[in-house]
Amino acid sequence: MQHSTIKRWSMLLIALAIVAVFAAACAQQPAAPAPAPQAQAPAATQAPAAAAPTQAPAAAPKATEAPKAAPTSAPAAQPTAAAKAAPAGTGNQLVVGIAHDLTTLDPGRGYEIAGGLAHKAIYDTLVTTAPDDITKIVPSLAEKWDISSDGKTYTFNLKKGVKFSSGNEMTANDVKWSYDRVKGLQGNPSFLFSTIKSVDAKDPNTVVITLDSPDPALLAKMTFMAFAVLDSKTVQAQGGVTGADAKANDKAQQWLDQHSAGTGPFVLKSWTKDNEITVEKNPNYWGTPSKLDRVIYKNLPQSASQKLALEGGDIDIALELNADQTKALASNPNVKIVQGPTTDIFFLLANKDKSMSPKGVMSDPKVVQAVELALDRDAFKDLSGTKSGVPPTIVGLGFLGSWDESKTPKRDVAKAKQLLADAGYPNGFEVDMEYPTKFNRDGLDWDTMAQKVQSDLAEAGIKVNLKPGDLQTVLANYRAGKEGFSLWQWGADFPDTNDRLAFLPEGIVGKRAGWTNATSDPNIQKLRDQAAVETDPQKRVQVWNDIQQYLMDNSPFIPLIQPNRAVAVSNKVSGYTFNNQFLVQPLLLSKQQ
Amino acid sequence: MSVTDYVIRRVLIVIPLIIGLTLVVFLVSHMLPGDPVAAHLGQRSMEDPAIVAAFRQEWGLDQPLYVQYLTFLKNLSQGNLGVSIHTKQPVMDDLGRYFPASIELAVTAVFFAILIGIPLGIISAVKRNHPVDHGARVVSLLGVSAPVFWLALVGLYVFYLRLGWLPGPGRLDTGMTEPTHITGMFTVDSLITGNMTAFASAVRHLFLPALVLGMATAGLVTRMTRSSMLEVLSSDYIRTARAKGASEGRVIIQHALRNSMIPTVTVIGLALADIMSGAVLTETIFAWPGIGRYAFQSTVSLDFPSIIGVTLLIAVVFALANLVVDITYVFLDPRLRTA
User: Fold this and answer.
1) Which among A33, A61, A304 has the least Cβ separation from residue B97?
2) pLDDT exceeding 70 applies to what percent of chain A?
3) What kind and span of H or E run contains B65?
4) Cα separation of A52 and A31, whole Å?
5) Phi, psi angle pair for B268, to nearest 5°
6) ipTM
7) B223 contacts B119 by C-beta, under 8 angstroms
8) Of A113, A359, A487, B253, whose CB is crowded by the most CB atoms within 10 A?
9) Minimal Cα–Cα distance from B248 to chain A, Å?
């Protein structure tokens, strides 16, 4: 009895102690907006000593490479450089909220949004996009470039005196080595290099790229961070290799996940998976230094949490808000909403393959036109909560030679019914429409969009049965070309009109709609082949004009909207400029503390 | 049969169960419609048959299903769960990174559930049909029926944004260095290494997600405790105890509570296993990298090795939780020791 009483009391005491610990910890820092600067101080003071040792054990599961990483990281001297750049606790720090989708920070292997943002801070490419216009190519590490008259040879003159964060000089050899490595790795971004035959360092300041065939989109592709120039000496020392078997032999990923070897305005300080990517000012940066000392890309997978964290002052920029959250924040005086056009396009696919829809109904161009006229596309704009565009064709808006919204046909249900009658469906028809769900893109809800298509088409007598599915399930049908009628989305792989060759006969998406050389008109095939190699801007505009003219009557794709993207930025941050490719450009930003 | 024999027998039963489970999970996950190649290669890479073939070969997807399963069993017998297609890390390492975060969350949540649920259940049984009882029932109903993501968002809104008492999403304050990895539980690791700044931050960040998850469990615990207490309180030996002049507090705590704990312990054990094996909504809202998020990511990307790894882990967690619950019964009710 005595014994059990003691036991009971001790249990109670333990419970009280735990509660007390919580209470004490919570009482310690009472105000929420305060933690940011407060937390910064201990982190920074511990940085030189603690950062390296804590990172190593954290990464210890990958035991095989740990011993290699430890000794070599010392000569690279990254941690000390980083510590110098940010004197303890006084740093001007920017925090970006984004869902971490990345699996690596190796620019040769990664091809994800969050990774790309960090790469923009720590690496440079030869050319890049203008801060406010992704269709305009501007110099970065290259001072200027020439394109040969046959469009197959690009000669780049590099800026002189550019140093990597390690202090090594950046030369043409580094460019060649970096490009050869990505080509050899055969990772997700390697397709961007597919037209490149060879890269040569003519002299330390001249790089010559030779192509198999002319590629009008080459410069646009070269703005991607897969074309980042890496410090070849440093990365080779960490196991980086080039060549055909780089996929098997390159061992630099482990190191590149925690360190950087670039010329960018920042250096990578740390990446804690599913938590934060931290970059700090590069003391060896060649351009005008950043006004920020540190940028943290904080993982917030839920858009509602991003909104709360922005309002609470934990983050300065929220990148993934949905339409309702954007609207709710519009009235918040501490936040500004910046909008800009994306290169994404939501569209309907109507398969040209007769066996894919009942009686081949969707393969009839008249039916496709009827569907197009039955849709109230202006109303689709409202679904996104942002200013979106309705492009006249799948080519989209804002590219070189692409048409503007004035050519988009207006809704005309009577004419749609007439076209259906002409096609032999005076009483309309019934069709299934497949689409992906639980897959967030541009803050739009797929179900709502699909229901809107359903109700619009019902007015013209077309009964649409909605067939939502999990992304991976419906994606398999889509990619196999087995959908008769479906709702999908496409994001440009590079900001150039030629990205949309994918939608022409034999293109990736074209084939999914049963549009092949066998089922298409020789005229569109000829235009497609011209567009693929034409490098003269004037002639490109002409060719793409003809293509769009053709698509107006014969395309198996109906564009719904090209949404704008909304980014919520704290009023403390100035200089934010929208660029759909690089949603955060830290060099332009400053923050009032 | 001694308690030790009982435990050994229970553990041995778990082994064939888990092997059977691997077979079912393996078959089901491979029969799902959808292609892991499409989930991992970009649209343009998919166009290159050489890249697709290399991918299938790299991940053994070109082998017949039974060969893939036998390879998996062989690796498993060596304690190797394979490499995740998505993260490109050994699944064992991935689980080692995500699981401690879930344990930390689950243990704290269940602690809150006990702290709230049991006293509330006792009070509401003793004061049956009293306003206190009605109040307790409303609280437990709210805990059981309010969607957890709603509780999480409301919790963040009130305690983080409006009152500023608690921090926002994440496991630590922004920019804070993670404590040295020992157990993977930040509160424990920071205590071991004496990093009190990180400890305070970790505890503050743990409080709200644990409370939100604990509320749901607390609702169940309250109801269970109340109903079994009511049953026990109306039994003969309680009347006898009272007749012998035992004080009311002693009757309730010493005689009634212990005997009414069995259903409550079951609920608590299962809730613990449930939260440990992933609370995906709470984890997502609080940016808490637990096993639920990992399981979700594995499923959407058809990452077979991780799906199987997570399933096995969850099976082991549930088997262990049941075992612990059963052993607890033995301590609560001596009659079971000989059964």
Assistant:
1) A61
2) 84
3) helix B65-77
4) 31
5) -65, -45
6) 0.86
7) no
8) A487
9) 16
- From the list A131, A365, A81, the residue with the least C-alpha distance to A234 is A81
Residue A204 neighbours by CB under 8 Å, 6+ apart: A158, A171, A172, A173
Give helix then strand counts, H and E, for chain B. Answer: 16, 0
Instruction: Please judge whether A22 and B203 are an interchain contact, meaning their C-beta atoms are less than 8 angstroms apart.
Output: yes
Instruction: Please answer whether residues B81 and B90 qualify as being in contact, where contact means their C-beta atoms are separated by less than 8 angstroms.
Output: yes
Q: What percent of chain B has pLDDT over 90?
A: 23
Judge contact between A161 and A286, C-beta under 8 A. Answer: yes
B174 closest CB neighbour out of A26, A95, A470: A95
Looking at residue A385, what is its pLDDT?
A: 65
Q: Which residues pair with A567 in a beta bridge?
A: A338
What is the rounded CA–CA span in Å between residue A507 and residue A503?
Answer: 6
What is the rounded CA–CA span in Å between residue A536 and residue A360? 40
- Minimum Cα–Cα distance from A55: chain B residue: B180
Do residues B169 and B207 make contact, with C-beta atoms less than 8 angstroms apart? no
Closest Cβ–Cβ partner in B153, B160, B178 for A304 = B153
Contacts 24+ apart (CB under 8 A), B134-143: B136/B222, B136/B226, B137/B222, B137/B223, B137/B226, B139/B219, B139/B222, B140/B218, B140/B219, B140/B220, B140/B222, B140/B223, B141/B219, B142/B215, B142/B219, B143/B215, B143/B216, B143/B217, B143/B218, B143/B219, B143/B220, B143/B222
Helix (H) or strand (E) holding A179: helix A172-185
User: Which chain A residue has its CA at the smallest distance from B181's CA?
Assistant: A58
Mean pLDDT (chain A) is 84
B314: Cβ contacts below 8 Å, ≥ 6 apart? B277, B278, B291, B295
For A28, the closest chain B residue by CA position comes to B200
Q: Are strands A266-272 and A276-281 parallel, antiparallel or unpaired?
A: antiparallel
SS (HEC) of A261-289: CCCCCEEEEEEECCCEEEEEECCCCCCCC
pLDDT tier, A63 (very low <50, low <70, confident <90, very high otherwise): very low
> What are the residues whose beta carbons fall under 8 Å from the beta carbon of A539, sequence distance 6 or more?
none
Bridge pairing between strands A462-470 and A429-437: parallel
Contact A397, A562 (CB under 8 A): yes
Q: Which residues of A touch B301 (CB under 8 A)?
A: 472
pLDDT of residue A231: 96
Pick from A365, A215, A119, A25: nearest CA to B191: A25
Which of A42-56, A391-405, B59-73 is predicted least confidently? A42-56
pTM of the model: 0.83
B157 by Cβ neighbours in 10 Å (0-12 / 13-18 / 19+) ranks as middle
Given a contact cutoff of 8 angstroms between Cβ atoms, the answer to whether B291 and B313 are in contact is yes
CB contact under 8 A, B97 and A275: no
> Is A493 in contact with B164 (Cβ distance < 8 A)?
no
Does an H or E element contain A296, and which? strand A294-299
Tell me the Cα Rg of chain A.
Answer: 27
Chain A residue closest to B177 (CA)? A43
Name the 3-class secondary structure at A434: strand
pLDDT digits (tens, 9 = 90+) for A377-420: 888 887 776 678 899 999 999 888 999 989 998 999 999 999 99
A95 to B175: CB separation less than 8 angstroms, yes or no: yes
Distance, CA of A178 to chain centre: 21
Could B173 and A188 be called an inter-chain contact, meaning their C-beta atoms sit closer than 8 Å? no
